[in-house]
Amino acid sequence: DIDPSTADHLLFTCGTLMNELLPEIEKIAAYAKAERVTIEDINAVADPVLDARVFDMTNCVTAGKYDEAARVLADLLRMQTEPIAILAALGKELRKLYTARMALDTGKDRFWVKQLWNMGSDYPAKLLMQAAKKVDHDWCADAVKRCQMLDRRMKSERGIDSEAELTLFLMELAGAR
Fold first, then answer.
1. CA 120 – CA 9 distance, rounded (Å)
2. 38-76 in b/e burial notation, b at 16+ Cβ within 10 A?
3. Spatial CA neighbour of 165 closest among 88, 87, 89
4. How many CB atoms lie within 10 A of CB 4?
């Protein structure tokens, strides 16, 4: 059995594509010891999609957990995830975080963020709003601009060490906090 909020966490972590979700559900069901699946069960055995891992990394930065953010990035790179794919997911996450910060600044709620980003549930919007409370408007604006600049450099410059640049960008985000 699984409650609605834990199901939201499952979909956020593993994605909503059935061909990727079914094997994860089977793993979690085999692992879970209790009658009801918990978030801890999901986190223990599920393979998160890239967006969920990047959200974790961004959330670690906003929470001041820089070593954990670096570990997430190192794991993604060790799994041979393309740096440009990581940066694309990071850019999307930073834009979402920025809009959540703007929502807070203008008195809007998570349902506005959910609708703006066309989210299937309000679970990711709730997580974004929590993370946005930890950063200010200027940090978000600067992070999005820096991400765009790095994206342009990674796509246009020859011989760039994308992994090193991505690591440096993460350190810059942490340092700006």
1. 12
2. beebbeeebebbbbbbbbbbbbbbbeebbeebbebbeeb
3. 87
4. 9
Q: How far apart are CA 155 and CA 129, in angstroms?
A: 31
Q: Are 86 and 54 in contact (CB under 8 A)?
A: yes
Per-residue buried b or exposed e for 140-171, using 16+ beta carbons within 10 Å of the residue's own CB: bebbbebbeebbeebeeeeeeebeebbbebbe
| Tokens describing residue 131 | 């993370």
Q: Answer yes or no: are the C-beta atoms of 126 and 110 closer than 8 Å.
A: yes
pTM of the model: 0.86
Tokens matching residue 142? 């600067």
* Residue type at position 110: R
Please report, in tens digits, the pLDDT of each residue of the chain (177 residues total): 999 999 999 999 999 888 989 999 999 999 999 999 999 999 999 999 999 999 999 999 999 899 999 999 999 999 999 999 999 999 999 999 999 999 999 999 999 999 999 998 899 999 999 999 999 999 999 999 999 999 999 999 999 999 999 999 999 998 877
The tokens of 11 are what? 């979909």
Contact 10, 46 (CB under 8 A): yes
